[in-house]
């Protein structure tokens, strides 16, 4: 009996069946670690409040010169309806990371080549965003008096931030770029790439809703979202179209070669 026949006849043990799940959890922990490192690094560059407030006013004035809609106009309906405020705050607080994590897990299991590219894209985008935070500290609209905008999180809840003067868990003066928008757009692009049918374009509603939410809650300017989208475009152009082989055991979805990212990669139909 040959080696191939011995391998084929080997029984599938519970340990072997659980291996893909363990690897998926490992990858999820890797992405969570990336997110936590980013949050921690933002705290290292915190403390430049006066510069952040001045930059916030400059961004607001620049948007008026560019004839962009006033963020306060978008926030006004939210302030008039408590339920709408709760929904917007909840979306901002609870959708950002879980939606990204679930997408990455699904891509890992069903489209490993796209998963590897998306994971790399998020890593590079996050690192680039941190560099911008270091160079350009920026107060969000809710902390910039010139905008007259309200912190909907603290007024209506739920809120992910404490008072900015005493908040030791986050740097609230790092608004540009908006990684809420950047990550949402990255996962939407990945999902559009691996699904079929006209309905696949509905994935883009996630970054669109995210952009409206971050503006309506006073957490970001329009330009924060624009810069995030531009940076994502640069990252996509800079990264190679294919991914190098990844070492792994037979049957490991992450053991992907460059041929897996060809246009013939299997797609999931969205009806």
């Amino acid at each position: 009996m040959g080696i191939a026949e011995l391998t084929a006849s080997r029984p599938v043990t519970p340990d072997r069946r659980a291996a893909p799940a363990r690897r998926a959890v490992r990858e999820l922990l890797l992405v969570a670690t990336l997110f936590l490192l980013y949050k921690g690094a933002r705290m290292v560059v915190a403390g430049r409040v006066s510069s952040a407030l001045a930059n916030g006013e400059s961004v607001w004035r620049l948007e008026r010169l560019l004839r962009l809609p006033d963020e306060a106009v978008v926030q006004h309906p939210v302030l008039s309806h408590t339920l709408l405020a709760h929904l917007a705050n909840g979306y901002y607080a609870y959708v950002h990371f879980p939606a990204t994590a679930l997408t990455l897990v699904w891509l890992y299991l069903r489209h490993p080549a796209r998963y590897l590219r998306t994971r790399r894209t998020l890593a590079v985008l996050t690192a680039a965003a941190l560099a911008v935070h270091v160079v350009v500290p920026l107060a969000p609209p809710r902390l910039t008096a010139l905008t007259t905008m309200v912190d909907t999180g603290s007024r209506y809840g739920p809120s992910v931030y404490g008072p900015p003067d005493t908040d030791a868990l986050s740097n609230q003066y790092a608004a540009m770029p908006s990684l809420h928008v950047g990550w949402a757009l990255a996962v939407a692009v990945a999902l559009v790439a691996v699904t079929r049918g006209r309905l696949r374009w509905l994935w883009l509603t996630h970054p669109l809703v995210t952009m409206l939410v971050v503006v309506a809650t006073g957490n970001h300017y329009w330009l924060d979202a624009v810069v995030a989208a531009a940076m994502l475009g640069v990252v996509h152009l800079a990264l190679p179209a294919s991914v190098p082989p990844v070492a792994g055991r037979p049957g490991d979805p992450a053991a992907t070669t460059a041929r897996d990212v060809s246009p013939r990669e299997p797609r999931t139909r969205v009806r």
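The longest strand covers residues 195-196. The first helix runs from residue 3 to 9.
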